[in-house]
Amino acid sequence: MDFRAHEWPITGTPSRISKIELNQICDIADLAREDPDVIKLWIGEGDLPTPDFIKNAAISALAAGYTRYTYSHGVPALREALNRYHKRHWKVDVGAERFSVTAGGVQAIMQAMQAILEPGDEVIVPVPAWPNSLEIIGILGGTVVPVSYRTRERGGFTLDLEDVFAATTQRTKAIVINSPSNPTGWVMPKEQMIALRDFARSRGIWIISDEVYSHFVYNGSSLAPSFLEITEPTDRLIITNTFSKNWCMTGWRVGWVIFPHGMATVFDNMSQYNTTSVATFNQYAAVAALDEGDGFIRSLVERSARGREIICSALDNLPNVRVFWPEGTFYFFFSVRGMNNAYEMARQILREASVGVAPGSAFGPGGEQFLRVCFAVDPTLIAEGARRLESFLRNLPNSN
Asked: What is the pTM of this model?
Protein backbone atom coordinates (compact mmCIF):
# COMPACT_ATOMS: atom_id res chain seq x y z
CA MET A 1 0.00 0.00 0.00
CA ASP A 2 1.25 3.49 -0.87
CA PHE A 3 2.22 5.59 2.16
CA ARG A 4 0.08 8.44 0.79
CA ALA A 5 -3.12 6.36 0.97
CA HIS A 6 -5.61 7.36 3.66
CA GLU A 7 -5.61 3.78 4.94
CA TRP A 8 -1.82 3.70 5.36
CA PRO A 9 -1.57 4.98 8.97
CA ILE A 10 -4.26 2.75 10.45
CA THR A 11 -2.76 -0.40 8.96
CA GLY A 12 -0.03 -0.02 11.56
CA THR A 13 -2.49 -0.13 14.48
CA PRO A 14 -2.38 -3.30 16.62
CA SER A 15 -5.48 -5.47 16.31
CA ARG A 16 -6.24 -5.14 20.02
CA ILE A 17 -6.64 -1.38 19.40
CA SER A 18 -8.35 -1.43 16.01
CA LYS A 19 -11.04 -3.81 17.28
CA ILE A 20 -12.12 -1.52 20.15
CA GLU A 21 -15.89 -1.17 19.98
CA LEU A 22 -17.54 2.18 19.34
CA ASN A 23 -18.89 3.61 22.59
CA GLN A 24 -22.58 3.53 21.77
CA ILE A 25 -23.54 5.71 24.75
CA CYS A 26 -21.33 8.58 23.59
CA ASP A 27 -22.41 8.02 20.00
CA ILE A 28 -26.08 8.51 20.96
CA ALA A 29 -25.25 11.46 23.22
CA ASP A 30 -23.27 13.21 20.47
CA LEU A 31 -26.45 13.40 18.40
CA ALA A 32 -28.10 15.89 20.77
CA ARG A 33 -25.71 17.08 23.49
CA GLU A 34 -26.57 20.72 22.80
CA ASP A 35 -30.32 20.28 22.21
CA PRO A 36 -32.14 22.01 25.09
CA ASP A 37 -35.38 20.11 24.42
CA VAL A 38 -33.83 16.69 25.04
CA ILE A 39 -34.01 15.21 28.53
CA LYS A 40 -30.53 13.73 28.86
CA LEU A 41 -30.55 10.49 30.85
CA TRP A 42 -27.84 8.67 28.88
CA ILE A 43 -24.54 9.47 30.64
CA GLY A 44 -23.64 8.24 34.12
CA GLU A 45 -23.60 11.54 35.97
CA GLY A 46 -25.97 13.74 37.91
CA ASP A 47 -26.98 17.26 36.96
CA LEU A 48 -25.78 19.09 40.06
CA PRO A 49 -22.59 21.18 40.00
CA THR A 50 -19.62 20.34 42.18
CA PRO A 51 -20.34 21.73 45.68
CA ASP A 52 -18.84 25.13 46.52
CA PHE A 53 -16.75 23.81 49.43
CA ILE A 54 -14.89 21.56 47.00
CA LYS A 55 -14.43 24.27 44.37
CA ASN A 56 -13.23 26.71 47.02
CA ALA A 57 -10.64 24.20 48.22
CA ALA A 58 -9.28 23.98 44.67
CA ILE A 59 -9.18 27.77 44.37
CA SER A 60 -7.32 28.02 47.68
CA ALA A 61 -4.84 25.37 46.54
CA LEU A 62 -4.23 27.26 43.31
CA ALA A 63 -3.70 30.50 45.24
CA ALA A 64 -1.25 28.68 47.54
CA GLY A 65 0.82 27.60 44.53
CA TYR A 66 -0.10 23.90 44.35
CA THR A 67 0.43 23.77 40.61
CA ARG A 68 3.60 21.70 40.30
CA TYR A 69 4.47 18.01 39.98
CA THR A 70 3.79 15.98 43.09
CA TYR A 71 3.98 12.41 44.38
CA SER A 72 2.96 9.77 41.84
CA HIS A 73 0.89 8.01 44.50
CA GLY A 74 -0.86 11.27 45.41
CA VAL A 75 -0.27 13.98 47.99
CA PRO A 76 0.02 12.57 51.54
CA ALA A 77 -2.92 14.69 52.72
CA LEU A 78 -5.24 13.01 50.22
CA ARG A 79 -4.04 9.48 50.95
CA GLU A 80 -4.58 10.12 54.67
CA ALA A 81 -8.05 11.56 53.98
CA LEU A 82 -8.91 8.46 51.93
CA ASN A 83 -7.92 6.28 54.86
CA ARG A 84 -10.10 8.34 57.23
CA TYR A 85 -13.01 8.04 54.80
CA HIS A 86 -12.81 4.23 54.66
CA LYS A 87 -12.36 3.97 58.41
CA ARG A 88 -15.40 6.19 58.98
CA HIS A 89 -17.74 4.36 56.61
CA TRP A 90 -16.57 0.73 56.56
CA LYS A 91 -14.71 0.57 59.90
CA VAL A 92 -11.53 -0.65 58.18
CA ASP A 93 -8.08 0.82 58.68
CA VAL A 94 -6.53 0.36 55.26
CA GLY A 95 -3.45 2.48 55.89
CA ALA A 96 -2.63 5.55 53.83
CA GLU A 97 0.33 3.74 52.27
CA ARG A 98 -2.00 1.39 50.33
CA PHE A 99 -3.76 4.15 48.38
CA SER A 100 -2.74 5.46 44.97
CA VAL A 101 -4.49 8.46 43.40
CA THR A 102 -5.51 8.12 39.75
CA ALA A 103 -6.95 10.30 36.99
CA GLY A 104 -10.51 9.10 37.59
CA GLY A 105 -12.12 5.69 37.93
CA VAL A 106 -11.32 4.62 34.37
CA GLN A 107 -7.62 5.01 34.98
CA ALA A 108 -7.95 3.24 38.32
CA ILE A 109 -9.24 0.18 36.46
CA MET A 110 -6.60 0.58 33.75
CA GLN A 111 -3.80 0.64 36.33
CA ALA A 112 -5.27 -2.30 38.22
CA MET A 113 -5.32 -4.36 35.02
CA GLN A 114 -1.88 -3.16 33.91
CA ALA A 115 -0.50 -4.32 37.24
CA ILE A 116 -1.64 -7.93 36.89
CA LEU A 117 -2.43 -8.89 33.27
CA GLU A 118 -0.25 -10.71 30.78
CA PRO A 119 -1.37 -10.99 27.14
CA GLY A 120 -3.70 -13.99 26.83
CA ASP A 121 -4.86 -13.91 30.45
CA GLU A 122 -8.58 -14.43 30.98
CA VAL A 123 -10.69 -12.08 33.09
CA ILE A 124 -14.17 -13.11 34.20
CA VAL A 125 -16.69 -10.25 34.06
CA PRO A 126 -20.39 -10.49 34.98
CA VAL A 127 -22.39 -9.02 32.10
CA PRO A 128 -23.98 -6.72 31.11
CA ALA A 129 -21.11 -4.54 32.36
CA TRP A 130 -19.66 -1.05 32.09
CA PRO A 131 -18.08 -1.02 28.60
CA ASN A 132 -14.87 0.66 29.76
CA SER A 133 -13.98 -2.33 31.92
CA LEU A 134 -14.52 -4.72 29.02
CA GLU A 135 -12.46 -2.68 26.57
CA ILE A 136 -9.58 -2.07 28.99
CA ILE A 137 -9.05 -5.83 29.26
CA GLY A 138 -8.87 -6.14 25.48
CA ILE A 139 -6.56 -3.13 25.10
CA LEU A 140 -4.06 -4.88 27.40
CA GLY A 141 -4.24 -8.13 25.45
CA GLY A 142 -6.48 -9.96 27.89
CA THR A 143 -9.57 -11.99 27.08
CA VAL A 144 -12.96 -11.16 28.58
CA VAL A 145 -14.87 -14.23 29.77
CA PRO A 146 -18.47 -13.03 30.19
CA VAL A 147 -20.73 -14.57 32.82
CA SER A 148 -24.36 -13.52 32.52
CA TYR A 149 -26.40 -12.23 35.41
CA ARG A 150 -29.60 -14.13 36.00
CA THR A 151 -32.97 -12.47 36.53
CA ARG A 152 -35.55 -13.24 39.18
CA GLU A 153 -39.12 -13.97 38.21
CA ARG A 154 -40.38 -10.90 40.05
CA GLY A 155 -37.61 -8.67 38.75
CA GLY A 156 -34.06 -7.95 39.77
CA PHE A 157 -30.68 -9.30 38.77
CA THR A 158 -28.64 -11.94 40.57
CA LEU A 159 -25.20 -13.43 40.07
CA ASP A 160 -24.91 -17.20 40.49
CA LEU A 161 -21.40 -17.84 41.78
CA GLU A 162 -21.54 -21.38 40.40
CA ASP A 163 -21.65 -19.78 36.95
CA VAL A 164 -18.54 -17.77 37.84
CA PHE A 165 -16.69 -20.78 39.24
CA ALA A 166 -17.56 -22.87 36.17
CA ALA A 167 -16.11 -20.20 33.88
CA THR A 168 -12.62 -20.35 35.42
CA THR A 169 -9.75 -22.06 33.62
CA GLN A 170 -6.01 -22.33 34.12
CA ARG A 171 -5.71 -19.00 32.29
CA THR A 172 -8.08 -17.12 34.62
CA LYS A 173 -6.13 -14.22 36.12
CA ALA A 174 -8.91 -12.13 37.66
CA ILE A 175 -12.62 -11.79 38.41
CA VAL A 176 -14.12 -8.32 38.12
CA ILE A 177 -16.94 -7.38 40.49
CA ASN A 178 -18.81 -4.09 40.19
CA SER A 179 -21.15 -3.80 43.16
CA PRO A 180 -23.45 -1.95 43.11
CA SER A 181 -23.49 -2.79 39.41
CA ASN A 182 -23.63 -0.45 36.45
CA PRO A 183 -25.94 -1.02 34.58
CA THR A 184 -28.01 -3.68 36.37
CA GLY A 185 -28.30 -2.16 39.86
CA TRP A 186 -27.38 -5.53 41.44
CA VAL A 187 -25.68 -5.43 44.87
CA MET A 188 -23.44 -8.32 45.94
CA PRO A 189 -24.39 -9.72 49.37
CA LYS A 190 -21.57 -10.08 51.87
CA GLU A 191 -22.10 -13.85 51.98
CA GLN A 192 -21.28 -14.04 48.27
CA MET A 193 -18.23 -11.85 48.78
CA ILE A 194 -16.92 -14.31 51.36
CA ALA A 195 -17.57 -17.28 49.07
CA LEU A 196 -15.83 -15.57 46.15
CA ARG A 197 -12.92 -14.55 48.37
CA ASP A 198 -12.41 -18.15 49.49
CA PHE A 199 -12.62 -19.44 45.92
CA ALA A 200 -10.15 -16.84 44.66
CA ARG A 201 -7.73 -17.52 47.51
CA SER A 202 -7.73 -21.24 46.80
CA ARG A 203 -6.78 -20.67 43.16
CA GLY A 204 -4.60 -17.57 43.36
CA ILE A 205 -7.07 -15.51 41.32
CA TRP A 206 -7.25 -11.74 41.64
CA ILE A 207 -10.46 -9.90 42.52
CA ILE A 208 -10.84 -6.43 41.01
CA SER A 209 -13.65 -4.74 42.92
CA ASP A 210 -15.14 -1.57 41.44
CA GLU A 211 -16.95 0.02 44.40
CA VAL A 212 -17.87 3.37 42.85
CA TYR A 213 -21.58 3.31 43.78
CA SER A 214 -21.29 2.01 47.36
CA HIS A 215 -23.38 4.83 48.87
CA PHE A 216 -26.21 4.47 46.34
CA VAL A 217 -28.25 1.63 47.83
CA TYR A 218 -32.01 1.41 48.34
CA ASN A 219 -32.49 -1.71 50.47
CA GLY A 220 -32.52 0.00 53.84
CA SER A 221 -28.75 -0.05 54.25
CA SER A 222 -26.62 3.07 54.17
CA LEU A 223 -23.77 1.35 52.35
CA ALA A 224 -23.11 -1.59 50.09
CA PRO A 225 -20.67 -4.16 51.53
CA SER A 226 -17.00 -3.82 50.60
CA PHE A 227 -14.46 -6.56 50.02
CA LEU A 228 -12.24 -4.60 52.41
CA GLU A 229 -14.46 -5.77 55.25
CA ILE A 230 -13.73 -9.46 54.68
CA THR A 231 -10.16 -9.58 53.34
CA GLU A 232 -6.58 -9.26 54.54
CA PRO A 233 -4.03 -6.68 53.32
CA THR A 234 -2.15 -9.50 51.54
CA ASP A 235 -5.16 -10.83 49.60
CA ARG A 236 -5.05 -10.56 45.82
CA LEU A 237 -7.61 -7.77 45.88
CA ILE A 238 -7.54 -4.38 44.14
CA ILE A 239 -10.29 -1.84 44.89
CA THR A 240 -11.04 0.91 42.36
CA ASN A 241 -13.07 4.04 42.99
CA THR A 242 -13.63 7.64 41.90
CA PHE A 243 -14.68 11.05 43.16
CA SER A 244 -16.98 11.49 40.16
CA LYS A 245 -20.26 10.11 41.48
CA ASN A 246 -20.39 10.86 45.23
CA TRP A 247 -19.36 14.51 44.92
CA CYS A 248 -20.42 15.48 41.36
CA MET A 249 -16.81 15.69 40.18
CA THR A 250 -16.96 13.86 36.85
CA GLY A 251 -14.88 16.52 35.09
CA TRP A 252 -12.19 16.75 37.76
CA ARG A 253 -10.72 13.33 36.92
CA VAL A 254 -9.67 12.10 40.33
CA GLY A 255 -9.99 8.51 41.53
CA TRP A 256 -8.10 5.98 43.60
CA VAL A 257 -6.83 2.43 43.85
CA ILE A 258 -6.35 0.37 47.00
CA PHE A 259 -3.64 -2.23 46.42
CA PRO A 260 -2.31 -5.10 48.54
CA HIS A 261 0.75 -4.91 50.76
CA GLY A 262 3.92 -5.28 48.75
CA MET A 263 2.66 -3.54 45.59
CA ALA A 264 3.49 0.10 46.40
CA THR A 265 6.34 0.23 43.89
CA VAL A 266 4.19 -1.36 41.18
CA PHE A 267 1.48 1.28 41.51
CA ASP A 268 3.98 4.08 41.92
CA ASN A 269 5.38 3.03 38.53
CA MET A 270 1.89 2.71 37.02
CA SER A 271 1.13 6.31 37.99
CA GLN A 272 4.53 7.64 37.01
CA TYR A 273 4.42 6.18 33.52
CA ASN A 274 0.73 6.79 32.86
CA THR A 275 0.13 10.34 34.09
CA THR A 276 3.11 11.27 36.34
CA SER A 277 0.56 12.57 38.86
CA VAL A 278 -2.95 13.94 39.16
CA ALA A 279 -3.25 17.75 39.17
CA THR A 280 -2.12 18.83 42.62
CA PHE A 281 -4.82 21.45 43.24
CA ASN A 282 -7.50 18.90 42.32
CA GLN A 283 -6.13 16.57 44.96
CA TYR A 284 -6.58 19.19 47.68
CA ALA A 285 -10.16 19.70 46.47
CA ALA A 286 -10.60 15.93 46.85
CA VAL A 287 -9.43 16.17 50.47
CA ALA A 288 -12.26 18.62 51.14
CA ALA A 289 -14.73 16.30 49.42
CA LEU A 290 -13.76 13.40 51.68
CA ASP A 291 -13.60 15.32 54.95
CA GLU A 292 -16.58 17.63 54.49
CA GLY A 293 -18.81 15.86 52.00
CA ASP A 294 -20.75 13.17 53.88
CA GLY A 295 -23.85 15.34 54.16
CA PHE A 296 -23.75 16.11 50.46
CA ILE A 297 -23.55 12.38 49.65
CA ARG A 298 -26.62 11.70 51.81
CA SER A 299 -28.61 14.41 50.04
CA LEU A 300 -27.51 13.07 46.66
CA VAL A 301 -28.62 9.54 47.53
CA GLU A 302 -32.00 10.80 48.81
CA ARG A 303 -32.48 12.73 45.57
CA SER A 304 -31.58 9.66 43.51
CA ALA A 305 -34.01 7.54 45.52
CA ARG A 306 -36.82 9.90 44.51
CA GLY A 307 -35.76 9.66 40.87
CA ARG A 308 -35.71 5.86 41.12
CA GLU A 309 -39.23 5.78 42.49
CA ILE A 310 -40.53 8.10 39.77
CA ILE A 311 -39.06 6.35 36.73
CA CYS A 312 -39.58 2.76 37.89
CA SER A 313 -43.17 3.38 38.98
CA ALA A 314 -43.99 5.12 35.71
CA LEU A 315 -42.94 2.15 33.57
CA ASP A 316 -43.86 -0.66 35.96
CA ASN A 317 -47.43 -0.95 34.72
CA LEU A 318 -46.67 -1.04 31.01
CA PRO A 319 -47.43 -4.50 29.63
CA ASN A 320 -44.55 -4.42 27.15
CA VAL A 321 -41.87 -3.31 29.64
CA ARG A 322 -40.11 -5.53 32.16
CA VAL A 323 -38.99 -3.44 35.11
CA PHE A 324 -36.01 -4.39 37.27
CA TRP A 325 -36.01 -2.14 40.32
CA PRO A 326 -32.32 -1.45 41.02
CA GLU A 327 -30.99 -2.31 44.47
CA GLY A 328 -28.15 0.16 43.99
CA THR A 329 -26.44 2.72 41.70
CA PHE A 330 -28.47 5.47 40.03
CA TYR A 331 -29.35 3.50 36.89
CA PHE A 332 -32.56 1.85 35.76
CA PHE A 333 -32.06 -1.06 33.33
CA PHE A 334 -35.29 -2.21 31.70
CA SER A 335 -36.28 -4.42 28.78
CA VAL A 336 -38.89 -3.79 26.09
CA ARG A 337 -40.81 -6.67 24.57
CA GLY A 338 -40.10 -7.11 20.87
CA MET A 339 -37.05 -4.82 20.88
CA ASN A 340 -34.45 -6.39 18.61
CA ASN A 341 -31.93 -3.56 18.40
CA ALA A 342 -31.35 -1.44 21.51
CA TYR A 343 -29.09 0.99 19.67
CA GLU A 344 -31.73 1.76 17.04
CA MET A 345 -34.42 1.94 19.71
CA ALA A 346 -32.36 4.53 21.64
CA ARG A 347 -32.04 6.59 18.46
CA GLN A 348 -35.78 6.32 17.84
CA ILE A 349 -36.59 7.41 21.41
CA LEU A 350 -34.27 10.39 20.96
CA ARG A 351 -35.95 11.40 17.69
CA GLU A 352 -39.56 10.82 18.68
CA ALA A 353 -39.67 11.38 22.44
CA SER A 354 -36.71 13.73 22.95
CA VAL A 355 -35.31 11.59 25.75
CA GLY A 356 -31.70 10.45 25.74
CA VAL A 357 -31.23 6.86 26.94
CA ALA A 358 -28.28 4.47 26.74
CA PRO A 359 -28.68 1.34 24.61
CA GLY A 360 -28.19 -1.87 26.57
CA SER A 361 -26.04 -3.24 23.76
CA ALA A 362 -23.34 -0.79 24.88
CA PHE A 363 -22.83 -2.97 27.96
CA GLY A 364 -21.75 -6.12 26.20
CA PRO A 365 -23.33 -9.58 25.98
CA GLY A 366 -26.80 -9.82 27.49
CA GLY A 367 -27.60 -6.14 27.15
CA GLU A 368 -29.17 -6.21 23.71
CA GLN A 369 -32.76 -6.35 25.00
CA PHE A 370 -32.33 -3.49 27.48
CA LEU A 371 -32.18 0.28 27.80
CA ARG A 372 -30.57 2.26 30.62
CA VAL A 373 -31.51 5.60 32.11
CA CYS A 374 -29.67 7.60 34.75
CA PHE A 375 -32.02 8.91 37.44
CA ALA A 376 -29.49 11.01 39.39
CA VAL A 377 -31.03 14.23 38.11
CA ASP A 378 -33.68 16.71 39.22
CA PRO A 379 -36.82 14.70 40.12
CA THR A 380 -38.90 17.18 38.08
CA LEU A 381 -36.78 16.36 35.04
CA ILE A 382 -37.05 12.63 35.72
CA ALA A 383 -40.84 12.96 35.98
CA GLU A 384 -41.03 14.62 32.57
CA GLY A 385 -38.64 12.08 31.08
CA ALA A 386 -40.74 9.27 32.55
CA ARG A 387 -43.90 10.79 31.09
CA ARG A 388 -42.35 10.99 27.62
CA LEU A 389 -40.94 7.46 27.82
CA GLU A 390 -44.23 6.01 29.06
CA SER A 391 -46.12 7.65 26.21
CA PHE A 392 -43.61 6.47 23.62
CA LEU A 393 -43.44 2.89 24.89
CA ARG A 394 -47.21 2.61 25.31
CA ASN A 395 -47.72 3.52 21.67
CA LEU A 396 -45.21 1.08 20.24
CA PRO A 397 -46.62 -1.63 17.99
CA ASN A 398 -47.42 -4.80 19.95
CA SER A 399 -47.32 -2.86 23.21
CA ASN A 400 -50.38 -4.60 24.66
From this structure: 0.94
